[in-house]
Amino acid sequence: MTGQTFSQKVLKTKQSSLNSFLLGFQSLSMLQICLLLNNIVFVYLHLSGNIVVIVMIFSNDFFNSPMYFFLCNLSLSQMLSTTIITPKCSKFCLVGTLLMTESFLLTVMSYDRFLAICRPLRYSSIMHFWFCCYLALTCWPYLYKICLCA
Questions:
Q1: Which tens digits make up the pLDDT trace of 24-42?
Q2: Which of 78, 88, 125, 137 has its CA 20 to 30 A from that of 11?
């Protein structure tokens, strides 16, 4: 019996301290505006940087290699995660799949670099365009599955 009253007291104390913490930020409207502007600037810089990477890769023939193809996919994945995480932090499932996609893309990029370093003579025969597309597309299906279900 005393365990329930003690746990109820602890729960009420935690709730009241959380409420006072959250309500404390309501009076600081200038801080909220500064944090909002700071967030907008960083999101804009992040998105514009990834757009510059994608445009540079597609506009220049020098970047016509599998490493840059996968780097373009990684930039696209990061752009999607930025646009989803920033406005709606409650979609944890979608955020998790985006992080999983980025992890798979980094794995594919490391496999690409492994082949380029350890098997340089066979690299161009193994990493042809369609195999790169296949590797990139295997990283994205979980995201499509979640987006179609949601």
A1: 555 566 666 777 777 788 8
A2: 88
